[in-house]
Amino acid sequence: MKIDDKLIDRLSKLSHLNIDDADRASLKGELNDILDFVENLNEVDVSNINATFTTLEGGTLLREDIVVKDEELSKNILKNAPKSEDNYFIVPQIIE
Known about the structure:
By secondary structure, the protein is mainly α. It is 41% helix and 4% strand. The chain is built from three helices and two strands; from the N terminus they run αααββ. The chain has helices spanning 5-15, 21-40, 71-78; strands at 84-85, 88-89. A two-stranded antiparallel sheet has the order 1-2. Strand 1 (84-85) and strand 2 form a beta hairpin. The radius of gyration is 24 Å and the shape is flat. The model has no long low-confidence stretch (mean pLDDT 88).
């Protein structure tokens, strides 16, 4: 896959970023370099590696999930919200 102007336009639209004409050539080159590097990963032989391989002994360490109710923390967080009511954030409706 090669990066061209059409793909740059699409990425610009999807990301809502304005990409200057002066930066396009540089961006195309950098993205092509990244894709070339990623393509090198296809050459790595992983046939002898287990799909569930991990470097952590004994699996992932998890902490116990303990519920802590801190009224002061809730008040401090909600005071930064544009709108709040009954300890909840008020947000604009997005589904009609």
